[in-house]
């Protein structure tokens, strides 16, 4: 028998029970599940034990909006039932579909409002196969005991590569030369066109994207300096500077990679453009509110700034189409588009096939780990809790996943219930009103499992319970 066959057998023999007790959620009958799913284990040397909530074949996942095929593959390998749709669903269809599924994967178009979520009877987890999570009522989901995951950093490399392209394009006025030829004008010039080798790139925000950009820029012979509110170890020979002004004074190219916060609103405005070198360039692929665009327009009209590349805007059209990017959207649009050496892109920094695939893989893994092991690390609405895996040879061990209201005395009550067993390890954390405990308890007889469930189910702070073994 091959190692793969053994793994398949192990997986198919290991089952656990879902005893989700959220209000309005139909629970699997503990006794019935328990009787149907007696785990039989193959004993082998040191191996992590795969914990599976009920038979994996019973797990139903609804995937909408053409979620990347890499994710479908991962879910199918887990044995889950995948219901896949290329588009989003009208609300009434979504309500019908969400009633029975344990997980749902969406992108930005599907709105998981309280009105939709209240119909979900078995839902355990939501995957946003994108960056943002505004489309989900996160608090409502957390109060139902439903964790939400996304993939905030899978497209960092794509953004960094776009910025490199823009640095060269601005330095060589590529946008203008291309538009001229498209309209029949031959304009072979070298004045004010530069190599980027030896020039200084100032990166504002040295996080996932800023640091990737730093490495790529140095590889092309640029000097890199960066400003960040946090002290961050430099990559390569980049240097952190202590003030934004210092960065602005020294940089030939300034690229912004900060989040949208009250501190970063209009981070580059009149005083900051005045502090920059004459003929410097500005690149913003972070958030639209970070650059004061009327101030940028004036700085460019005055010849202070030699070029700009913008990928993000304070207001962006809700959908693709002609005549959507105009003065009705942002009052300064016509002024901006009339300037030379301005590259405008429709928020495509992270939009590559590779990023979509990386998002698919990351979110699918997060969902599988949460379903199979209770690991909530990376969740956006939930306490982040994980426990190391159980060893495969740990017999009679049960993992308790207990989501509850964050009120005094809960852990004492729960530990009293678990006290007749050996608590091998446990971890608990809270996030606002919601708290989450994972505990591995050993020396649990099959007949104890229903009692543990029943007692936990009667605790007043309980939101939902799952027992994995
Ligand atoms: N254009 C796109 O398609 C696209 C794609 C992905 C991300 N983004 C955006 O890019 C930005 C950066 O993303 P990331 O993944 O690198 O984020 P990140 O969280 O990894 O890094 C942000 C960095 O900015 C720093 N920072 C925060 N406030 C600051 C301030 N006031 N001054 C200086 N530094 C500050 C943080 O300390 C952190 O190091 C975000 O706004 C994100 O939304 C855009």
UniProtKB/TrEMBL annotation:
It comes from the Eukaryota. Transmembrane segments: none annotated. Keywords: Amino-acid biosynthesis, NAD, Oxidoreductase, Phosphoprotein, Serine biosynthesis. GO terms for biological process: L-serine biosynthetic process. InterPro entries: ACT-like_dom_sf, ACT_dom, D-2-hydroxyacid_DH, D-isomer_2_OHA_DH_cat_dom, D-isomer_DH_CS, D-isomer_DH_CS1, D-isomer_DH_NAD-bd, NAD(P)-bd_dom_sf. It catalyses: (R)-2-hydroxyglutarate + NAD(+) = 2-oxoglutarate + NADH + H(+); (2R)-3-phosphoglycerate + NAD(+) = 3-phosphooxypyruvate + NADH + H(+). Its EC number is 1.1.1.399, 1.1.1.95. It holds the Pfam family 2-Hacid_dh. One of its GO terms (molecular function) is phosphoglycerate dehydrogenase activity. Residues 399-469 form the ACT domain. Pathway: Amino-acid biosynthesis; L-serine biosynthesis; L-serine from 3-phospho-D-glycerate: step 1/3. The keyword Oxidoreductase applies. Belongs to the D-isomer specific 2-hydroxyacid dehydrogenase family. Catalyzes the reversible oxidation of 3-phospho-D-glycerate to 3-phosphonooxypyruvate, the first step of the phosphorylated L-serine biosynthesis pathway. Also catalyzes the reversible oxidation of 2-hydroxyglutarate to 2-oxoglutarate. NCBIfam families: PRK11790.1. This is 2-oxoglutarate reductase. It comes from Naumovozyma dairenensis (strain ATCC 10597 / BCRC 20456 / CBS 421 / NBRC 0211 / NRRL Y-12639) (Saccharomyces dairenensis).
């Amino acid at each position: 028998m091959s190692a793969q066959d053994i793994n398949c057998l192990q997986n198919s023999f290991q089952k656990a029970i879902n005893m989700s007790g959220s209000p309005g959620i139909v629970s699997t009958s503990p006794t019935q599940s328990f009787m149907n799913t007696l785990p039989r284990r193959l004993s082998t040397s040191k191996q992590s034990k795969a914990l599976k909530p009920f038979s994996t074949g019973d797990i139903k996942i609804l995937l909408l909006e053409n979620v990347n095929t890499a994710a479908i593959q991962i879910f199918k390998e887990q044995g889950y039932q995948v219901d896949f749709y290329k588009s989003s669903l009208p609300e009434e269809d979504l309500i019908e579909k969400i009633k029975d599924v344990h997980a749902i994967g969406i992108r930005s178009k599907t709105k998981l409002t309280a009105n939709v979520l209240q119909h979900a009877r078995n839902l355990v987890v939501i995957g946003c196969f994108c960056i943002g999570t505004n489309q989900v009522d996160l608090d409502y989901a957390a109060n139902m005991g439903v964790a939400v995951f996304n993939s905030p950093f899978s497209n960092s490399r794509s953004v960094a590569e776009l910025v490199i392209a823009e640095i060269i394009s601005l330095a060589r006025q590529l946008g203008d030369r291309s538009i001229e030829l498209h309209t029949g004008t031959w304009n072979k010039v070298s004045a004010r066109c530069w190599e980027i080798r030896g020039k200084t790139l100032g990166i504002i925000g040295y996080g996932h994207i800023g640091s990737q950009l730093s490495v790529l820029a140095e590889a092309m012979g640029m000097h890199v300096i960066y400003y960040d509110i946090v002290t961050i170890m430099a990559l390569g020979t980049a240097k952190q500077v202590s003030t934004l002004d210092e960065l602005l004074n020294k940089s030939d190219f300034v690229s912004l990679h900060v989040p949208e916060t009250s501190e970063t609103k209009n981070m580059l405005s009149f005083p900051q453009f005045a502090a920059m070198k004459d003929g410097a360039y500005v690149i913003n692929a972070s958030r639209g509110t970070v650059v004061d665009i009327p101030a940028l327009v004036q700085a460019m009209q005055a010849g202070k700034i030699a070029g700009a590349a913008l990928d993000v805007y304070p207001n962006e059209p809700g959908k693709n189409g002609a005549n959507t990017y105009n003065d009705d959207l942002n009052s300064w649009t016509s002024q901006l588009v009339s300037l030379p050496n301005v590259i405008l892109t429709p928020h495509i920094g992270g939009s590559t096939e590779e990023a979509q695939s990386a998002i698919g893989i990351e979110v699918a893994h997060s969902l599988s780990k949460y379903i199979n092991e209770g690991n909530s690390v990376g969740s956006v609405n939930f306490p982040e809790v994980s426990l190391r895996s159980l060893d495969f040879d740990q017999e009679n061990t049960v993992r308790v996943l207990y989501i509850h209201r964050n009120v005094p005395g809960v852990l004492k009550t729960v530990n009293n219930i678990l006290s007749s067993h050996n608590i091998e390890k446990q971890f608990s954390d809270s996030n606002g009103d919601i708290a989450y405990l994972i505990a591995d308890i050993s020396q649990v007889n099959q007949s104890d499992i229903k009692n543990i469930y029943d007692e936990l189910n009667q605790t007043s702070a309980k939101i939902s319970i799952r027992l994995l073994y």
